[in-house]
TrEMBL record:
Gene3D superfamilies: Aldehyde Dehydrogenase, Chain A, domain 1 (3.40.605.10), Aldehyde Dehydrogenase, Chain A, domain 2 (3.40.309.10)
One Pfam family matching this protein: Aldedh
Annotated GO biological process: L-proline catabolic process to L-glutamate
Annotated family: Belongs to the aldehyde dehydrogenase family.
Alphabetical keyword list: NAD, Oxidoreductase, Proline metabolism
Lineage: Eukaryota, Fungi, Dikarya, Basidiomycota, Agaricomycotina
NAD is among the record's keywords: yes
Organism the protein comes from: Dendrothele bispora (strain CBS 962.96)
Name by which UniProt lists this protein: Multifunctional fusion protein
Enzyme Commission identifier(s): 1.2.1.88
Reaction(s) catalysed by this chain's protein: L-glutamate 5-semialdehyde + NAD(+) + H2O = L-glutamate + NADH + 2 H(+)
Amino acid sequence: MSTLGLFTPPVVQNEPLRHYAPGSPERAGLQSVLTKMQQSLPFEVPCIVNGKPVKSSSTATQVIPHDHAKHLCTYHEADESLLNSAISDALAAKKEWESMPWNDRAAIFLKAAELVSGKYRYEIMAATMLGQGKNAWQAEIDAAAELVDFLRFGVHYVEEIYKTQPPRNAAGVWNRTEYRPLEGFVFAVTPFNFTAIGGNLCFVPAILGNVVVWKPSPGAVYANYITHKIFLEAGVPPSVIQFLPCTNDTAPSFVAKALSHPSFAGLHFTGSTHVFRSLYKEIAIRTGEGKYKGYPRVVGETGGKNWHLVHESAEVKNAVNQSVRAAFEYQGQKCSALSRVYVSSYLWNKQGGFKDLLLAEIKKIKVGSPIEWENFMGPVAGKPAYTKSLSYIQKAKDEGGEILCGGTGDDSKGYYVQPTVILTKDPKSLTMREEIFGPVLTIYVYEDTDFEKTLDLIDETSEYGLTGSIFTSTRSVLIHASHRLINAAGNIYYNEKCTGAVVGQQPFGGSRASGTCDKAGSGSIFGRFLSARSVKENFVGLEGEGVDGGWGYPSNLV
Ligand SMILES: NC(=O)c1ccc[n+]([C@@H]2O[C@H](COP(=O)([O-])OP(=O)(O)OC[C@H]3O[C@@H](n4cnc5c(N)ncnc54)[C@H](O)[C@@H]3O)[C@@H](O)[C@H]2O)c1
Ligand SMILES: N[C@@H](CCC=O)C(=O)O
């Protein structure tokens, strides 16, 4: 194909957020799609291989967490033989996909961004609200805005990578870098809690010319299915992203099968730490045994035990409001969710201080169906998440923790857990250490004279290092604490909550047990799914270097 120009993609901006205020056109638009979707329940979701629906003999359901008697969809489970044929067909499609001119691959995903932003915005949001328990605000920032941002900014980042070329050329030589996709297929294993993450984990490798086998979460199948439909409609070739759902019961053997394929070249995972560790181990063993063609790339973003440090100099109203959002928005089911607070004893105890304000604000939170507009909080993901939250609350009580509010749940219709605050005197108690992934916040009040020890506690209490925030109005405190906590969070915030990273603004990801810190929403993640080839082209031979235009070194002359 001839080159007819060096094209520059459109300038990239964050997708403007819609607010869904009463009487707004967006509220009416979303409501109408939600109503229609509820009237059409349940949907049927097949596997999609080579762009075609494949039904299997084994089906499962995605339950609606706010009304568990109903389900959003029945999905067909992929089995291992379908997995094998999907991998073979994806590999067969790879040559043509990686050879497609960059501007065409870019155009396909820019078109997908427009489809999410416009035609499918309310449908993908409604699927996320019904299936994953998000209210309109949370669905907007995830399924609409973040997914669009991942796609548009991704095109920009890949453009930047392709433009990065060796800075020097010797006389008569042209050096170039070619950014090859990986040799084999990339396996994307994605979580329930962010529709955007499901799409992004496939998009990142795919836009670089890789082919992808996607195992979505059983808790997000329908929204992920819509994402896949959008990719196909935008022009992603049929076999480039294969959509293969399965249940969590069959996931261990299904995933192991994919990882044992000799052409497995990369894992793009987001989910819990223990699952990632088990996959990492499997890959490491097989790599050590020389079972793969190369050394697979392993990218995983996992759990967190995220913290707010509230210094005595903090502006208390801001610290409280940000803490309420960070701990309880989306029921504490963001990997970034706040789950431990270290607060100055002075600020906690003073009248109208952190404690008084926090409890007063939490009283105002409405918990209920995410499709009713007034509810700030909805249900947790399912029965296991419900039981887990309540069992941690019980364990905290058994350890001597004081429940300041909440502490109860109701699963008669949906899986509701009240926003819960536990006050602990033991900074290393269980709920200060382990990820709960529910609306459960534990608070440790430190003596103001113990600030240094508190920094050590934050750093050493949990194995994670995902997000954290420092609230203070004293610059020297901020500088000191931030430096001391250098490895305690991959995303640190100053006087701002620890959730809500925005693509293109705060690259997202943590280290320690929280993941490989490859930073979703930034350019660096794309480098993980590329294998660069250095090219040196010589226009002049050894002219000017070899003796008499031959091969001899001038330094050999005597
Ligand atoms: N750091 C981040 O960017 C980030 C973002 C979102 C979620 N998370 C983390 O994800 C977790 C919540 O998501 P989740 O509940 O979907 O996680 P999960 O680990 O249960 O599931 C993630 C994926 O792994 C699959 N899976 C589950 N068990 C498996 C097994 N034994 N073997 C192979 N595959 C298996 C699931 O089907 C799903 O596709 C939390 O720990 C949260 O902190 C992290
Ligand atoms: N990137 C999101 C969290 C994603 C994980 O669940 C945030 O910053 O709140």
